[in-house]
Amino acid sequence: MSQNRAKILSASRRTDIPGWYTPWFLAQITKGYFIIRNPYNQESKRVDARPENIHSIVFWSKNFGPFQDLLADQILKDMGYHLYFNFTINSRNEWLEPNLPGLSERLGQARRLCEKFDPEKLSWRFDPICFYTLDNKEIENNLNDFTMIADAMAEMGIGRCVTSFYNGYKKIEARVSHLSSRGNPHICFIDPTIEKKQQVIQRMAAYLEQKNIDLHLCCETSVFQTLGGKSHVKQNACIDGKHLKRLFGGTPETGKDYGQRSKLGCQCTRSIDIGAYAAHPCYHNCLFCYANTGIDTQIRQGRSK
To answer: Over the chain, what is the mean pLDDT?
Structure first.
């Protein structure tokens, strides 16, 4: 592989491209380029996405069904692209993640990816861990299916689980108010103590260790530091140039991406994210999401009337 095959495409931290925008992605990859816009200064640039200039593509999704239905995985593989998959599969929860396929369907999607691409090329994200109340009743969490999902992942041969705890954003408060005004329960997210977080992570890690799955923390330095040197829990790089090099060879980018949340423990390698918050809202409408959802679009449209 030549030296210029260094770029890693991220598709995408900003939206669920496999779930909602696979046709757009395939159209652009066929053209050989993407136009990306910086979300902060709105400057645009053209990214050459021809196979000879791309080391690998890292996909992020909660629903690879549309991607697989359009045979995008095989099309991209046949075009010469190396693919890696960050697949978020959480417990079933109609309030937190309302517009996802059933859990068994999503596990089936993961199984098909493993069969076609090898389990090493898939990272299971159980993310984020949420503690909350519904209408100010008892505290609940979204961990109820964790062991069942872990069992399924172990059976597929997946060896990595990535997790973090819920982080609050102002837009989430607007979503909660919007939904509760339409008859849905009022959800109040709760930030557990550092001791509680430590206990949760230790229990998860202990169960996963029995299944030969390593637990990795994403942007959770404060939790990671409490675990001590004997812990097998690791800090995660969701886009890891060194790991991609081990999988695919070549000379990918391996420098740290300081544009991410490095102060919170992000270990990611530099990559080019080709999603767009404004142009690509995600209609899974996950309540805790930091990206632009369909609910956010409805809220803005309501305010503009």
So the answer is: 94
